[in-house]
Amino acid sequence: MSEVQASFAPGSILELAQSTKKQWELGQVRLIASGILAQDGTLRSSELRESTWQLSIRSIEKSAAFTPSPSAQVFTLIAGDFVQLDVDGQEHGLEPLRPLKFETENPVQASQPAEELLIVHVAAVPEQVRPTVRIVELSKKREQYLFDGQLGLLVQGSAKLLLGDSEQSLNLRDTVVGSDAGEPRISGRGFMAVVSFDQS
User: What mean pLDDT value characterizes the chain?
Assistant: First the structure.
């Protein structure tokens, strides 16, 4: 894990470019962050094997099955048109920018995509952490705040991080760490996946 990703300082930026590409059953994966949810509601960094939540960008390049681990999952399609997932015998169509949440310990089958797809993938240990993903439309007139237990991932468009009196441009698919005290705000045009982790 890089130093950038190991730091969950309020308002820090976790750059996708700093993550290493690895393989998973359906394509490639870039782990953005993994950790635990502290009792005070803040996110703490940890090794993947000890983490109770994780956030990654993943490609779906072929029809294949994977076994969710941890078992609570949220898939959000951010590039491409459609893929179908078979979860415990029920078929779910994954459409752009519509988060799909499910929980299973059984293998999940993905259909053959017409093109390479990209998803924001959130996973958590359901006994300890409850994950949710909300897609918000960014505005230059109304800033998007990020709070404790939240990560904001820029999925489309362009945006700036405002922290106190300073501002910093975000690259596409960069992630910002939320904070009640630091009050990081996002201003721009496009869409952001706001990932929230709450105590179960």
Answer: 94
CATH tag for 3-126 (out of 2.60.120.10, 2.60.120.560, 3.30.70.20, 1.10.10.10): 2.60.120.10
Give the 3-state secondary structure of residue 60: strand
Per-residue pLDDT band at 116 (split at 50, 70, 90): very high
Q: Which amino acid is at 33?
A: A
pTM of the model: 0.94
Sketch the domain layout of the chain as residue ranges.
3-126, 132-199
Taking the C-alpha atoms of residue 173 and residue 157, their distance in angstroms, rounded to an integer, is: 10
Among the residue ranges 40-54, 62-76, 116-130, the one predicted with the least confidence is 40-54
